[in-house]
Amino acid sequence: MTEHANTKSNYSRRDALRLMAIGGAAGLIAPNLLGKPAFAQNPPANPTGRVVVGLSQEPTKFNPLMPHIEVDDAVHFSLFDALFRMDPKGILQPNLAVELPSQKNGGISEDGLKWHIRLRDDVRWHDGKPFTAEDVKFTLELITNPKFQAWRTAGHSLVRDIKVVSPTELTWRMEEAFAPYLSFLAETFMVPKHILEKEADPNAAAFNQAPVGTGAFKWAQRVAGDHIELVANADYAGEGPYLERLVFKYIPDMTVLYTQFKSGDIDLVDQAYITADHYAEASTLSDRVVKLEPGASVESIYLNLEKPQFKDPAVRQALYAAIDRKAILEALYYGVHKPTETFMPQNSYYYNPNLPAQEFNLERAGQILDEAGWVPGADGIRAKDGVRLSFANSTTSGNHLREQTQQFLQQTFAEIGVEMTISNLPAAVMWGDFWLKSQFESAISGVTNVIAGDPDVSNRLHSKAIVAKGGKGSNTGQYSNPEVDALLDKGARTFDREARRAIYLRVQEIVRQDLPFLPLFASTNVFGRKQGLEGFEANSNTRVASWHAAGWHWKA
Amino acid sequence: MRGFLLNRLSQSLILLLIVSVIGFLVLNLLPGGPLAQFGLDPSMTQDDLERLKEQLGLNRPLLIQYFDWAWRLLQGDWGHSFRDGAPVLAVIGRHVPATLLLMGTSTAIAIAIGTWIGIRGATHRYSLFDYMATVGAMVALSIPTFWFGLVGIYIFSLQLGWLPAGNMYTIGDGSVLNYLHHLIMPSIVLSLVHVAIWSRYMRSATLDAIGQDFVKTARAKGLSERRVIMKHVVGNALLPMITLAGVQLPSILTGALVTETVFTWPGMGRLFLDSLGYSDYPVVMGLLMFSAILVILGNLIADIAVAIVDPRIRLG
């Protein structure tokens, strides 16, 4: 458990006392750090200073339960709390709950259907009212209220019979065992019943423009189109905050976002971070900390497996061997991104680091095709049983880096007798039915496969998730492997972290072997912040850099 | 006058109707739509998207959606933004002051300097000043404003450190001086094109007036050259400028699309680009109607102003 000592924030007094009992010295050496994380470098006693966070899109949704985009998360994480929190290692930690319910501690029944949540008793809303189990019940019920324009309902729609046992305890029943719900709850921010229950229409509530949460920062004001200002919540139940003010500044142009980081107008760059082409220059700036941090999305060539060209695994293996990833990453992407062999984000607890590494080898690629019986025709293009090894590749038109990648691939594929044509479409067309209903032949796409940091990828890889075959989900490459299906079904019902890990490591092995898509790289973000901004931690299991501003402070 | 106004009003209503129909159609026929931004979000299932579509009323036939929108508009309900849920008029209201400040300043600079350059160019025709003004105007007109903006930021903010690299003010400092400091670069950059336009118009209008008989008469009466120019030439040359001002008036409130983005200015231009990017139909439609009304008003005011200044013109 020592590795969790630096996951802070969820330390109740009880935990702190327990820690002191274990290592009493801690209490002697640093009594003022009681309940504070071990790594915090002497944060100030009272919240002081201000941090301006730069965002390339404007946060506009302040009811965290309504449909929102990444940048909104940055504000939500500071204003609100969820029952749990996903730490940078991809492990769930309690937040508003005192413990993570599990089958071991009785929080979740053996069949996974009955849940029992125990809450902290020292949490207050920003208006001073106590946070209770009634608020949790209200939040979960609001999400499935048919009149409410809710964001994600997956998991929530399985919840039945929510019962408030006491102000700090509640239970519910699940329609089916669904382990990812724990992770989903880490992205389900609690909203106050006493404010929202009075609203006739929760979609148009005044709360949505001036939110009240339990988080480390309180709402101050919004200057539309410019910035959002939060102030320290002195009564915050968790660790921090150490900053008096937290400002989210909207800067619509990526170059200007970087320029204002360089000029010092903003202290930290959040979504969509520093562009790769500025990375080299940014690293040389004085008084700035610029670091590469793994993101959650994986850029791949998606193959529509129902097309006859791609049904033969040999073709997929040969194509994969014919991709000069090193050259693409270095020549086109400024060496920022990292190669990967799997769909799982590299900072996930469930990431499999032991997969065979791809090797660029045109000779080997040609050999694989030869052995599989794909022989070059008169035009030099290979064919087998009347199927020419020729296909179109599509992506968003105007995405220069992807367009250059395509040209690069076109050349190396041609060398092994494979013809790839380029047929790009505007974003709205490309990612509409053309993508969702598997009308493409092959496509380049950056996809975040996990939801809320949970390893369950049924939505992407389960055969039930193929829309073109009447399923529901985003398995647009139409991958179908009964063994993977069975593992995914099992993983979604397994609550034990270690048991789950084994399942998803195996899924990654099989998928690496089957190659339903050809991974190009794991996207990496260029994070930048001013020197002296301490307590900052990146967490690629969330969608933003500002997932835990409560711990930030300026060096004294 | 009354007949003229009634006539104008009916024309304007038809114009607004046409603008709204075309705007609505184009918006809705574009692929994508307000929910497209969630299309690649793994969190949202197809069912979630369908549900939201229904909740937002986007699954109804286009015609019904249009009439619903138009009927509400007639009753004064401009709808609510999909993005932040606020009423459209409130959304517009939040962005107007920033644009008014920026565009008002730059237009004032443009009119003052443009008029002066135009008059001086006309009275000192083919002088070095005239040539430089002409070349300068051509350069300003042919180089995109955002380029000037980026170069300005590079030189004056990053290299010299004299001016801020955008934003309307420093967060936490709302003093007048701070606003002015931030206003300098964007307003000058924006005024460059307008100075060029104004000076060219003013120059040719002044040249027209100088050639008129009444100018000869004024000179024959023995008036000083200064008096001839200021009283007789400029007064008449300003007439066509009123029309030009009428055409430019709406832009003072509708903003500059690209410049506001480059300088991180929270005005109307950027609101329009953002709303378009998110397919925030109610706000985009609101902005379209808002600018259409301003264009109509601008022209109306110009026509009336010209009639008041020039006794030869009668409305009706």
From TrEMBL, chain A:
Q: Does the keyword Signal apply?
A: yes
Q: Which InterPro entries match?
A: Peptide/Ni-bd, SBP_5, SBP_5_dom, TAT_signal
Localization terms from the record: Periplasm
One annotated GO molecular function: peptide transmembrane transporter activity
Family matches, as Pfam families: SBP_bac_5
GO terms for biological process, alphabetical: peptide transport
Protein's UniProt name: Peptide/nickel transport system substrate-binding protein
Species source reads Mesorhizobium muleiense
The uppermost taxa in this organism's lineage are: Bacteria, Pseudomonadati, Pseudomonadota, Alphaproteobacteria, Hyphomicrobiales
Automatic annotation (TrEMBL), chain B:
Q: Which GO biological process entries does UniProt record here?
A: transmembrane transport
All copies of the ABC transmembrane type-1 domain together span 96-306
Naming one, the record's GO cellular component terms include:
plasma membrane
How does this chain sit within the bilayer? Multi-pass membrane protein
Q: Where does the UniProt entry say this protein principally localizes?
A: membrane
Q: Which UniProt keywords apply?
A: Cell membrane, Membrane, Transmembrane, Transmembrane helix, Transport
Q: Which InterPro entries does this UniProt record tie to the protein? A: BPD_transp_1_N, MetI-like, MetI-like_sf
Q: Of which family is this protein a member?
A: Belongs to the binding-protein-dependent transport system permease family.
Q: What is the protein name stated in its UniProt record?
A: Peptide/nickel transport system permease protein
Which source organism does the UniProt entry give?
Mesorhizobium muleiense
> Lineage of this protein's species?
Bacteria, Pseudomonadati, Pseudomonadota, Alphaproteobacteria, Hyphomicrobiales
